[in-house]
Amino acid sequence: MHAMRIAFLALAxxxxxxxxxxxxxxxxxxxxxxxxxxxxxSDRSGITGITGRMVYEFNGSxxxxxxxxxxxxxxxxxGDTTQLTDQQTTTFEDSEGKSFSFVTKSFVDQxxxxxxxxxxxxxxxxxxxxxxxxxxxxxxxxxxxFPTQHLVDLLNKADTGDTFYETSLFDGSEDANRxxxxxxxxxxxxxxxxxxxxxxxxxxxxxDKFWPVDxxxxxxxKNGGEELxxxxxxxxxxxxxxxxxxxxxxxxxxxxxxxxxxxLFDVKPETCx
Length: 273
Hints:
mainly beta, 51% strand, 15 strands, 15-stranded antiparallel β-sheet
């Protein structure tokens, strides 16, 4: 499961705080809960059902940087067998988008199967990844974006009317050894409608306008990146940063993520030294 990239797109806001000066967008500390469900699956996947929950917490400021913690739990049914997966991730990104640290622990049926831990730093030459686990190694990759910077860039482009662009993202997921190319499609801005199942979680924000967004992720190390995307994510992106109504397509199967609870944290005005 590519849970990390899904979770970083699940930002929600309402009470804002100052974002990086170059960003032009405001993000809010918050806690969001999403219910996960199987949308469709091919016979080849062997999957007959998926249920789960994602709990995502975003905190920090333009002065101190941004911390994300989330947990992504799914129960996958495959005929006579059921597997419980549990991904737990904590990351920190500095406010300038130059340093990104990450820790991810992946459990299957409550047994630890994988731990990824490291730091990525950016300079004029590109990005250097220093991994501590599963084993120590250093990897140099080209210039790329980290998750919060990637989201802010998307908000800025949507706000200025861009409908298509390409960039790349490193978020420490999978083996944390490469960035993926992302192609982003931004649709025409719409507004909430009566009967929206996510409206109770949005409360007074349920009528806010949003952009339909689709992001495809490509691994350029495979056949020159000319194959089908590794996966796609579609969602509704609100002007104030809310991301909801997720559709995560992995090719052989897809699942939905519906916002069911949103808590905005109190924010204190601050001035960076």
